[in-house]
């Protein structure tokens, strides 16, 4: 069966399932997987899929995730191969120097990324792009968004019919070319 608009290649399905394709059953490797079949595999995994997820072998991204390092670090240290659960466990228990260094570097990189995200808001506020007086200091992000949406809805409700009429007239007017 060939992949179509509603099906995907086995490589794509394996990637989405987080499994190493050559370890999957031959029938999975040979056929196209529909989106419905993929959803079913996620929600109701057969025994072979549950076993692969439990014991491996795992593909590179999953090995890197389990080790707490980047895929690049795996490649740099000639560990660019699928590993099973026992091999991952042994690496974590007896961390070689390269793994310890890669885990530290990965953690530092993630911390810098998190600080960078916070720094983006601070730099935008310093440049005047963001009005920090409207940003809540100790509120949860979701609460702040909900509050902002409520304020927007209230502002829409407060608009007068004259405002709406003027807005529709300006939308109907032809735009001039700004050359």
Radius of gyration: 26 Å
Tally of separate helices: 10
Poorly predicted regions = 134-139, 163-173, 175-179
Strand content: under 5%
Order of helices and strands: EHHEHHHHHHHH
- DSSP helix fraction: 55-70%
Widest beta sheet: strand line-up: 1-2
Distance between the termini: 55 Å
Shape: globular
Our count of domains comes out at: 3
Mean pLDDT: 76
Q: Which sheet architecture does the biggest sheet show?
A: 2 strands, antiparallel
Number of strands: 2
Structural class by sheet pairing and helices: mainly alpha
Region (Disordered): 102-179
Biased composition (Basic and acidic residues): 131-142
Biased composition (Acidic residues): 164-179
Pfam family, one: DUF5997
Description of the structure:
It holds the Pfam family DUF5997. Residues 102-179 are annotated as: Disordered. With 179 residues, this protein is an all-alpha fold. The chain folds into three domains: 1-55, no CATH class; 63-132, no CATH class; 136-168. It contains ten helices and two strands. It has helices spanning 10-17, 26-30, 35-43, 47-55, 60-67, 71-76, 85-93, 97-126, 141-158, 161-172; strands at residues 7-8, 33-34. A two-stranded antiparallel sheet has the order 1-2. The protein is globular, with a radius of gyration of 26 Å.
């Amino acid at each position: 069966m060939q992949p179509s608009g509603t099906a995907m290649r086995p490589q794509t399905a394996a990637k989405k399932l987080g499994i190493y394709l050559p370890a999957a059953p031959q029938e999975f490797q040979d056929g196209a997987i529909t989106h419905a079949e993929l959803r079913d595999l996620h929600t109701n995994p057969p025994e072979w899929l549950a076993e692969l997820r439990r014991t491996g072998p795992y593909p590179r991204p999953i090995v890197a995730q389990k080790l707490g390092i980047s895929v690049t670090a795996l490649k740099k240290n000639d560990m660019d191969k699928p590993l099973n659960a026992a091999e991952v466990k042994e690496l974590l228990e007896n961390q070689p120097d390269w793994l310890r260094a890669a885990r530290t570097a990965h953690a530092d990189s993630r911390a810098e990324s998190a600080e960078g995200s916070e720094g983006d808001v601070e730099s935008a506020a310093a440049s005047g792009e963001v009005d920090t007086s409207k940003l809540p200091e100790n509120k949860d992000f979701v609460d702040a968004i909900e509050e902002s949406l409520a304020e927007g809805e209230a502002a829409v409700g407060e608009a007068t019919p004259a405002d709406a009429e003027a807005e529709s007239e300006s939308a109907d007017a032809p735009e001039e070319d700004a050359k």
